[in-house]
Write a structure and sequence with these properties.
Pyruvate Kinase, Chain: A, domain 1; alpha/beta; 5-stranded mixed beta sheet; 6 helices
């Protein structure tokens, strides 16, 4: 009986230590969510500003030639950028993204070249038929996202200059209040006529229309670079916010399970301890009666 009580005490101590770890990770995830969500809100305003600038350029003149890249051959592949996670304890975060990527790319014909952002995602994608290029490591803070975006843009530009990719699709999770996160996809390149028409149709917020000066083509190219940069930056920030939201939810479930386990262990521990005390008292009483 004493061995059982000692074993239960060890399990209770282990559960308390595990609960401390879970609470620490829960606090870290909650803290990280705040910085990424603030970045997403700030980027929304900046993204809107870039869109208005592009809209003004296209409304004023036909500058489509200023953003036309090198024509890709008919055998050019489809470039795919997918954001996942570097760390675990995020539930089905990476598995859901892999499933969404496969489902979205299945109707698209042609070769696919994929860049995965996140080591855990890379290992999941290695089990599919999608060809992977050397991936990228996720930043551990919002301040390191800029360097990551620069690396991705350099890799894309090198492939587009070589004519090996034609279209580029972007996949990431976006935080949602009702479902923690939702997988999203976006055609990042090419910047086609449909994309330009959509920008032209954006209503200008003021009654006075703007004028782009002095070098309109240089201004347009600068705005396009900002558009690509902010699209990737926002995708990364939303993915990181979703990852930490998923980790927070997982830690909350783990904390609830640990609390239930502790209640069961404590109840069993006290029952066994009381049973042991009752047996010792019974032995004492039996011995006393035998002496009398």
């Amino acid at each position: 009986m004493s061995d059982s009580v000692a074993s239960l005490r060890h399990k209770i101590d282990s559960a308390e230590e595990l609960e401390s770890v879970v609470r620490t990770m829960k606090a870290m995830a909650a803290s990280s969510i705040t910085q990424y969500e603030n970045a997403v809100r700030s980027l929304d305003d900046y993204y809107r500003t870039v869109q208005l600038g592009l809209s003004a350029c296209f409304k004023q003149d036909n500058l489509s030639g200023a953003i036309t890249g090198r024509e890709a051959p008919g055998t050019a592949a489809i470039g795919v950028i997918v954001f996942g996670s570097d760390q675990g304890l995020v539930g089905q975060f990476n598995e859901a993204m892999v499933e969404f990527v496969e489902h979205t790319l299945a109707p698209l014909s042609g070769k696919k070249i994929l860049w995965a952002v996140g080591e855990r995602l890379q290992s999941r994608l290695s089990e599919t038929r999608l060809k992977q290029e050397p991936g990228f490591t996720l930043p551990n803070s919002i301040h390191a996202v800029t360097a990551l975006v620069g690396q991705i843009l350099i890799a894309l530009e090198a492939r587009r200059e070589a004519g090996s990719i034609e279209r580029v699709y972007l996949f990431h999770h976006s935080p949602r209040a009702d479902a923690i996160y939702t997988p999203m996809s976006q055609q990042l390149l090419p910047l086609d006529q449909a994309w330009r028409d959509e920008l032209v149709n954006i209503p200008w917020p003021a009654s006075n229309l703007p004028e782009v000066m002095p070098d309109r083509q240089a201004t347009l190219r600068a705005l396009v670079r900002e558009y690509l940069f902010v699209s990737l930056f926002r995708a990364c920030a939303e993915s990181l916010a979703s990852e930490n939201a998923s980790r927070l939810a997982a830690m909350q479930r783990a904390e609830k399970n640990i609390d239930e386990l502790q209640d069961d262990l404590n109840l069993t521990f006290h029952r066994l301890r009381q049973s042991s005390i009752d047996e010792e008292l019974f032995d004492v009483l039996s011995g006393f009666e035998a002496l009398n």
